[in-house]
């Protein structure tokens, strides 16, 4: 069983994952420079994954993938700062989308499993549904050939990520409330 301090760290990790999604969703650009770079989101993911491993061991598999995604986003951000264009149809771009698909699918699977173990069945099922929809949207975006189709899929992806954030914030709040009840009972 996980102790109280680990539970608080777990709750913080869920908040970090929700915030990481927000950082990745929104881009505030000045010229080619994103002032809210995606690599910051992956840094939060990386920090959160270390905590979630205590609850779901298979999360360990995500550590190298979140590092790869974070480094890729950092390099892309630096290149954008230097006004160097990156080819969005390169093999590296496609590989990063494959890693992203696996990362999000497994992360949301792990969190939904933990939520289920903590008796938050409805939230667990919502996360599983969102996980599957996100998988489809990321795949369609990566494979899209038409710019209008890509815009539509991007809008869908933003809506899904925001929905994931809402569910994660709600889940973290419920975990926090339950933790506070336990502290008061002790």
UniProtKB/TrEMBL annotation:
It comes from the Bacteria. The chain crosses the membrane at residues 12-30, 65-85, 155-174. The keyword Membrane applies. The keyword Transmembrane applies. Keywords: Membrane, Transmembrane, Transmembrane helix. This is Uncharacterized protein. It comes from Longibaculum muris.
